[in-house]
Amino acid sequence: MLSFLPHIALPPTPALFAQLLIGLINGAFYAMLSLGLAVIFGMLNIINFTHGAQYMLGAFCAWLALNYLGIGYWPALILAPIVVAAAGMVLERLFLRHVYKLDHLYGLLLTFGLALIIEGLFRQYYGSSGQPYSIPDGLTGARNLGFMFLPNYRAWVIVASLAVCFGTWFLIERTRLGAYLRAATENPTLVQAFGINVPRMVTLTYGFGAGLAALAGVLAAPIYQVSPLMGSDIIVVVFAVVVIGGMGSIVGAVLSGFVLGLVEGLTKVFYPEASNTVIFVVMAVVLLVKPAGFFGRTA
Questions:
Q1: Could you give the 3-state DSSP secondary structure of residue 143?
Q2: What are the structural domains, with CATH classification, of the chain?
Q3: Is the pTM for the entire model greater than 0.70?
Q4: Rounded distance, CA 156 to CA 288, Å?
Q5: pLDDT, tens digit (0-9, with 9 covering 90-100), for 26-81
Q6: Contact 115, 231 (CB under 8 A)
Q7: Largest CA distance in the chain
Q8: Quick one: 290 exposed, middle or buried, by C-beta within 10 A (0-12, 13-18, 19+)?
């Protein structure tokens, strides 16, 4: 009687776990990138569309350091975020601080234009094709878990992402510096009256968010090819993740990043045609039910 309903064949267990692993990897990058966006929006109240370009810059810093300076993966994990954070602080000093008191649209358009300029310069010099970046020697190979093989580097990415996300949450929510940052977003004049240099704190906060994006780029370089387009390919999805979690929410950014990565992986197993749109469908539903996102604050 129900024969007219479509039959959904269950995938073999190894294929299911493989897609879940891919979803978890994607979720790790979604979480790290949305974390940086949440930090910048929560502390600076600006929508930073340059974040995707800074993610790309981190990957390119690692690639350039390896091919031109002989600097390997592990030093690049420290060097690339510092370089991109410094460049981000220069951008904040020269451009972004002039739009803080304006409507969000001005900041979005400015950062979108900066992202297009950065991406265009790299496309001019390196083209649109990706550049390979090899997995470091200590993280090659895979482990047999019985039900699947887990590549060592992908396991490292998941662990590193969780550590970075927890460390950032702890810094902002459980330390004195984080208390100053949160107070500066609520009442910068009062905080400055206590002798705290709020403009410098804002600059450092933006640099920290840019450094998080660059760190994600270095981690992504051995998995995805290093390409000028890698930032623009992921940033729209990351913005959807941030909206679902709640703009400016650290916990919402991390949890929604990992959960939506897994949802995307499961969708590729059971309904591959919808895998590219499932996150945006979830975003639309969340905006209808809870416009501020799951962990966002209502105005």
A1: strand
A2: 13-127+136-289 (1.10.3470)
A3: yes
A4: 37
A5: 999 999 999 999 889 887 888 899 999 999 999 999 999 999 999 999 999 999 99
A6: yes
A7: 76
A8: middle
